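Give me the 3D structure for Proline dehydrogenase and delta 1-pyrroline-5-carboxylate dehydrogenase.
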Amino acid sequence: MSSYFQFFCPSSSMNRGRKELREKSLQPEENRAEELIRSFEVLQLSPEKVNQRLKLLLNTLGKEAKGSVTEQLTKVYPLNTPEGLLLLRLAEALPRITDDQTALIFFKEEIRKGNWHNTTRKYWLSFLISKLKLLVETFDLLPLLSVLSDKALILFIQVATRLLVDVFVLAPDVERARRRLFDLLVKGEEVSLDLLGEDAQGSKDGLSHWENCQKVIEMLGDLKTTFPRSDPEMSVKISALDSKYELHYGRISFDRIYSKVKSLCLTAQKKAVGLCIDAEQYWRFEFALDLLEALLSDPDLKDWNKMGFVVQSYLKNSEQLVDYLAELCKEKKKKLSIRLVKGAYWDHEIIHAQQVGLEQYPVYTLKELTELSYMLCLKKLFQHKEVLAPRLATHNPSTIAAILEFHSSLKENPIEFQRLYGLGQSLGKWLKTTGYPTRVYIPIGKGKELFGYLARRLIENGTALENFLYPFDFEKLRWDPLSKLQQRGKRHNPRIPLPPHLYKDRENAPGLDLANPETWENLVQKTTGPHSQPQLFFLYPQANGTRQKIFSPANSKECIGEVLLSSEDYIQKSLSEAASHAEEWDRVPVEKRAEKISKLAREIWAHKEELLYLLCAEAGKTVSNALSEIREAIDFCNYYAKEAVKLFSHPLLLPGPHGEENKLHYHGCGLWVCISPWNFPLSIFIGQIVAALLAGNTVAAKPAEETPLVAAAVVQLAYKAGIPKEVLRLILGNGQSGQQMVKHPSVRGIAFTGSTATAKRIAQCLSQKEGPIVPLIAETGGINCMVVEATAAIERTVKDILISAFNHGGQRCSSLRLLLVQKEISHQLLDLLSDATEQLIVGDPRFSETDVGPIIRKSLVEELQNFSQFFQTHGRLLAKAPIGETASSDGYFFAPHLFEISSTGLLNQEIFGPILPVLRFSREELPRILEEIYQKGYGLTMGLQTRRENLTREIALSAPVGNFYVNRPIIGAVVESQPFGGEGLSGTGPKAGGPNYLLRFARERVCSINTAALGDPSLYFLDQS
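Predicted structure for Proline dehydrogenase and delta 1-pyrroline-5-carboxylate dehydrogenase (1025 residues):
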């Protein structure tokens, strides 16, 4: 194992432990469930005794809760009701909306969604109004909105949302937190501070968070001198410290992040303060473990035993993780405090596993299994009490009752309970008075981070209403996870299909576990190793063809393969022969055609490593982009195969009078020419081909002249899958070869993806041809814009912008070409975006740390340089990424650029590369600016970042674009989920990957039979029921 992706694991025994963790994490849930059940039965934890404790606990809490303002508020508007979540959204969004008018519009739109007229819920508004000294006991909300002036209402909103934030967040900054924290320590509370924030978007963002963490630790240390018996702690989210907290960045990010975390630990050691590494998403799991191992091994920290680590019981490997941490501590002669939680990123883990095509989820899909896992983790913590100190973080009364019952016979094992600030005050008070140590988990930060924080806490503590309402409903909270599992019958959640079965009638394309360092190690070895270069491709020996070497855009002196270009004679002969087999192929049952295409999908995955190398070396794709394209190609095959059988296996029976039979039959058109681009040399290339083949056509396919090796490789796989060479012909050549193909008299259809100018030339050529009218399916580019409105979540928006504009070097037809930012938030957003842009790593795409690879050819680099000079003259350069160390001087590299411009008139054509112009706008100017963009005639993709649903509907309904995206990147359309294609200058339709695409490749024929003339016997029984 190379040290590049496993940063710190010197011990072979620890390596074995890591392997077990990886194996357990993606085991089938049914298997893990059986293991959990067997282990849990050994505990002999009586549900009857647990529920007796639960009843006593609930009775006590019901009495204690009556005087708690916070718990009364959550009774009135529980946080997981529509009104409660609505208030959280307001509290998150309103403090960062600097435009008063936008804030007012947003408030009015949002507040009308709630059911505020329920008499039991008027307490909340009365509470807020009392704080504003408005002497109103009860009122109807909508009349209030009309009575208050706009200025008064804005004041009301600002104060009300600040009050809501204050319920759950100690203070917006360290200085104000100091005063409030002092009061808590006076009361004898133990505290764990959490500085809100995660996913740093650049170096300044990460540095700012690190500096604030240092301030928090120093503050806790200073307070400890006043309260020497206290044992304060800070919880740290690593992703907030650095934007590169991901495995594939390798040692580049590890060394920098380790230095930051170690410096925090040294400060904590000096101040006698604890520091806990918080748990985040599963794909960061191995990175976090490497950090922990390095810290526990660091001689500068050898005398410090206040390190903490979070274990999430919803992970399938959580029990093994506790054992692993115990062995690690024993080996290093250290101690750890373990914060045991249910897990806060459950929804993220489900979505991510589905998106990347994992075979299994890394988390349990049933809450009963998470409950069993929690108790079994606690058992293991007790077993390792000499090195691991349990800190139990849960608000679930049922879980607490089970813990208390389990602990009753193990009193010698010390435990600590933790509760969230603003929640569970009565519960914490009761635990404390009964002799159990408790700690308050306290967030510090601004209101803009509140919603994400509380949403995760709701997931972590159970989103069921009964976990947050007083008085509790005992029957709903009754603890008996084994019985509940028996009642379910299944050992997984049937409402959550496994990632391979995400789609109803087809398999989701498989993926790789990129949370596993061994996966990355293998991928990089395949793309950069000595055996990565494939054999040369000679599909059709031709005496008069020209041999051509293919060079990598990452290094123009590196030959990666050689092809034989198709001569004019060969093109003519190939197209004529393919056309002559069209009727024969059309007669092949669609089920057999679909079977071959499905087999092709399996062949593509079986040869993913060869294709991965070619996509990186020939097309300049990064490793992750190449893997995504392989999966998209598989999705095209599987989806079109399913659709073809559904559409073409039987004729469509049409309505008509009795005595008549009307049927619509689909047939192939004949020979289709498929011309594909270099930016998606596998997925678009094969997508066009399989759609035409499934509809009963033969195909002559020409890839872009820059990427023939990828095309040659997948065509070989198509032949291996059983597609006859007579019906699929590969033509290799330049634009003149494509022109010759278009003019061929046997052609009955053209599928083209590329530039608008080339599409127009093809259309013109077809219009001048003699013979049948030939249909053209054209997918072209666009001036794709994204609107960022004042209510947008800025940090997430920056991430979406980076992906949209600079993924694959901006060399996607859907890439972001113009960013529109509302003036009121433009300064903050552009500062963050500029910083994040400058942190992008430009280099050889075959190295995993590369964010942006090369431009496909030298002439395009020169065009981009000209555009850059133009925008520097007529605009202002905001940011530019550096060229990285792995970028060869012989490669075609162009760094991402961010420019500010003053008018849409400066952008009249598509810029195919990593240049992003930015235009600031006022709220009043937006309609005019959008109309200027629409008038340019393009209509491919568009994005909107906003929290305003009314604005979303307004723009989405009027925008003349094929794909409209809200609060997400504008690239990455998924087959079947987001059919892709534009309108106007951006394409003809129908959309690729959609339900209408195959029909365009087919010819319709209707057969009408007068069955009465044939003595249709059914006519004689019409009068019978």
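The longest strand covers residues 555-565. Let me know if you want a second pass.
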